[in-house]
């Protein structure tokens, strides 16, 4: 008698277990969907909460952007002579959209910028004067040293370090100061041009707009300009003589 062996077969899972697994999968899917929804809602609320104002749908007019770009710049600037001359009408149209009071504030701001430039020019001139005097001192020391000055070299070097106190070559320092001075003169001229354009806008608004602050505006312009350097008299800076 022959016996045949058959491979054991697993019985199918009960129907209740299959339903249980399906319910678990469905619960996990709904949980992930709810988590994703909560994340989206949280991000939306964060964006709403930390947005202090509504974003502009369009940039301000080109003329006003040019005017704002032109104001407030000093020595290191991306506005040059061509921008001021060729963009004069754009500059004026941009500022003409503002109220007379704001125009007055723009003029005062530009006047303060010019005062800063004048202060830097005076400082640069003073630094040039001091540097050239230190240079004269070094030449005098060299001449006396060549005549066998009765001072040891270490003491002489100490005196030079105290009086001169330059970390770079003094001639290079003088050249650098002259370059800074020339740059400040350019900035001063440009500031004068912008002040003139602002004053023209103020004058037109007072004539055609019937500004109530006519008298105060005119007095501000006159008193401010009375203490200023004539913009056509910049040659006086080039003729400065240093005291011997």
Structure description:
The chain is mainly alpha-helical and 244 residues long. It folds into 4 domains: 18-54; 57-97, no CATH class; 100-168; 169-199. It is 71% helix and 0% strand. Mean pLDDT is 66; it is low at 73-77 and 210-244. Keywords: Coiled coil. Residues 1-41, 209-244 are annotated as: Disordered.
Topology record:
Blueprint: H1 15-49, H2 62-70, H3 81-86, H4 88-96, H5 100-146, H6 153-163, H7 170-208, H8 214-226, H9 235-238
Helix pairs in contact: 2-4, 4-7, 5-7, 7-8
**Oligomeric organization of the protein chains:** single chain
Which radius of gyration do the C-alpha atoms yield?
A: 38 Å
Summarize the helix and strand pattern as letters.
HHHHHHHHH
The domain count comes to 4
Strand content: under 5%
What is the number of helical segments per DSSP (H or I, 4+ residues)? 9
Main β-sheet, in a few words?
Answer: none
Structural class: mainly alpha
**Silhouette:** elongated
Count of strand segments: 0
Keywords: Coiled coil
Keywords:
elongated; about 240 residues; mainly alpha; 4 domains
Give a concise summary:
Residues 1-17, 215-226 have a biased composition (Low complexity). The protein has 244 residues and is mainly alpha-helical. The chain contains nine helices and no strands.
